[in-house]
Amino acid sequence: MTAAWILVTDADRLAACVALARGAGASVTCAVVGPRELADLAAAAGPDEVRWLEPAAEVPAEAYAAPLAAAVAAAGPQLLVSTSAPASRVLLGAAAARLGAALVPGVLAVRADGEVLVVDRAALDGAVVETLAVTGPLAAIADPGDDPEPSASTAPVTVLDGGAPAALRVEQRQAGAATSGVRDAARVVSVGRGLKAKADLDVIAPLLDALGAELGCTMPVADDLGWVAKERYVGRSGQHIAPRLYLALGISGAPQHLEGVRDARVVVAVNTDPQAPIFSAADYGIVGDLYDVVPALVDALHR
Ligand SMILES: Cc1cc2nc3c(=O)[nH]c(=O)nc-3n(C[C@H](O)[C@H](O)[C@H](O)COP(=O)(O)OP(=O)(O)OC[C@H]3O[C@@H](n4cnc5c(N)ncnc54)[C@H](O)[C@@H]3O)c2cc1C
């Protein structure tokens, strides 16, 4: 039977990761770096066992990458899984390096075919699903769906020794308005790849002023194009926000983006494509060119 270790630093999609590993017919160990409550949540998420490493005060989870990787190497699982949470990915990377595992992001499902692990993963920004056959150990950054129903059983929790931590937090301070602004704002105006150039953010600025809104964006606008600070992109791997108004300009409405705005009270979408999926998630939709609609909205708001 395949053995899987899930590297856990937060509770997001714990049970979904366990279900993903079970898809490969694996026995599942959750290696948790975090408080006891997190270990207990992991124990209830359906694994066979939980190995728990409690970080010392003011020590970030990533500082335990080396001892955790050593524990993984001693167990020698064929499958490692983490979510895309930054600290979990660090632990996964360190463990993958020790195991010589193939590191695959965007993993939707894994199944075993004899000695081979067959992986479905999202590629090209989620536009296609690609199937890979992995012969050696696999380190999967999972992109699973929502958590399944909670498990009826609770797995045993044993303690992992973290040794002396490799790093200590000496200070934590607010990163400034760029981060907290979009997360807490009552109104957010987000731009997607429908924006043609970085300079065109000047077209959006008067609308932000008129609405008293914060600027958000989709992942490619921040990550690939670098037009907006990464702290402002919204979605599964970005900010999860709950504004009273979310105005999406030139955004197609990929599921990964919509996940970040499902708690928004009112969603308004502007898109030239009447078939764009964003319209299914929007309360109000305007089929139109954002370069026409935004100045018209500003004008109307001023009047
Ligand atoms: C594992 C994983 C995690 C991801 N996490 C996130 C995430 O957290 N957040 C996120 O945003 N994405 C995320 N993505 C990417 C996501 O799948 C989409 O690729 C991305 O959200 C698309 O961005 P977009 O809507 O800006 O671009 P596109 O999909 O290219 O859409 C652009 C839209 O603009 C419209 N348009 C073009 N010109 C105009 C115009 N002049 N006026 C009006 N409309 C116009 C087009 O009709 C189109 O609908 C993730 C992907 C993966 C695989």
Give an account of the 3D structure.
Strand 1 (3-8), helix 1 and strand 2 form a beta-alpha-beta unit. Helix 3 (65-75) packs across helix 4 (86-99) and helix 6 runs parallel beside helix 10. The chain has 303 residues and is an alpha/beta fold. The strands form 2 sheets. A 9-stranded mixed β-sheet has the order 7-6-5-8-4-1-2-3-9. A 5-stranded parallel β-sheet has the order 11-10-12-13-14. The protein is elongated, with a radius of gyration of 22 Å. The chain has 2 domains: 3-159, Rossmann fold; 177-302, Rossmann fold. 29% of the residues lie in helices and 27% in strands.
Key words describing this protein structure:
303 residues; alpha/beta; Rossmann fold; 5-stranded parallel beta sheet; 10 helices; 29% helix; 27% strand; elongated; binds flavin-adenine dinucleotide
Concise account of the structure shown:
The chain is an alpha/beta fold.
Furnish the topology, listing elements before pairings:
Layout: E1 3-8, H1 14-23, E2 27-33, H2 36-43, E3 49-53, H3 65-75, E4 79-82, H4 86-99, E5 102-113, E6 116-123, E7 128-134, E8 138-142, E9 157-159, H5 177-184, E10 187-191, H6 201-211, E11 214-217, H7 219-223, E12 245-249, H8 255-258, E13 266-271, H9 278-281, E14 284-287, H10 290-302
Parallel strand pairs: 1-2, 1-4, 2-3, 3-9, 4-8, 5-8, 10-11, 10-12, 12-13, 13-14
Antiparallel strand pairs: 5-6, 6-7
Bound molecules: flavin-adenine dinucleotide.
Flavin-adenine dinucleotide (FAD) binds at residues 106, 122, 125-126, 143, 192-194, 218-221, 233-238, 250-252, 254, 256-257, 260, 270-273, 276, 289-291.
